[in-house]
């Protein structure tokens, strides 16, 4: 009988030896089963019953779904058919068991205080009596926290080294680093593991570079920590000569006219270069001015 006292199986066996075995199949999964054996004489006279209680193993759970935040994880699932008594949940990180929850009656479990950007595996067993169903597992990364305090460690004419601070409580750090020059339209990007610095080489001197670093997982990316820095300039001097002619006498030697032309030239350079590359404009008075 099942735990509702419904008959699931009944058979009469004629035996000639002292022991007898009966295979009972097609029983429902995850069910408390009561088995009684009674001796019969002439098919009508019954002896006392001998009874044993046991369980059929439950089937696997289904629809195991994980949702994560930076430091927490929630697992939810659907129970198998049958009267499952409880669930056992294991939380693993890199092959090691972090937590075990037993006698869970609900079809969900919340874990907090987890590491950020870490790949956690949740394993759920359905339990019927003392029997466990097949394990069902799913893995997912907690969301990554962004690195902080992005800064320049060193600079030369052709290379820049940046440093940053890892997020708190991170298990295995993986970062995406990016360097960009708007003037030269350079875009460099790399991924690095378990380091908090990176050196970009073969850069152009006297150039402003924008740097950003993000924490990454298999399918998630954090917000960026950003900073900027200029490579040291390799200075060169370029002379520009301007010839002025005018029908008005002495107009070209008027200081206001010359200053106006110089400021227009400066405005032009600002529009072309702004702060994206090193430049400096200086006015040199000619000896004849």
How does this structure look, described?
The chain is mainly β. It folds into three domains: 62-141, Immunoglobulins (Immunoglobulin-like), CATH 2.60.40.10; 148-230, Immunoglobulins (Immunoglobulin-like); 238-289, no CATH class. Helix content is 7%, strand content 41%. The protein has one helix spanning 255-273; strands at 32-37, 40-41, 45-46, 50-55, 62-68, 72-78, 86-93, 96-104, 108-112, 119-128, 131-132, 136-141, 148-155, 160-165, 174-181, 186-193, 197-200, 208-215, 225-230. The strands form six sheets. Strands 7, 8, 10, 11 and 12 form a five-stranded antiparallel sheet that branches. Strand 7 (86-93) and strand 8 form a beta hairpin. The chain is rod-shaped, with a radius of gyration of 39 Å. It starts with 31 loop residues before the first strand and ends in a 16-residue tail after the last helix. The mean pLDDT is 88.
Summarize the main sheet.
5 strands, antiparallel
Return the structural class: mainly beta
Structure summary, number of beta strands: 19
Tell me the radius of gyration: 39 Å
CATH superfamily of the largest domain: Immunoglobulins
Give the end-to-end Cα distance, rounded to a whole number of Å: 117 Å
Order of helices and strands: EEEEEEEEEEEEEEEEEEEH
Poorly predicted residue ranges: none
CATH topology of the largest domain: Immunoglobulin-like
The CATH class label of the largest domain is: Mainly Beta
Keywords: Receptor, Repeat
Organism: Lates calcarifer (Barramundi)
Pfam family, one: fn3
Protein name: Receptor-type tyrosine-protein phosphatase beta isoform X2
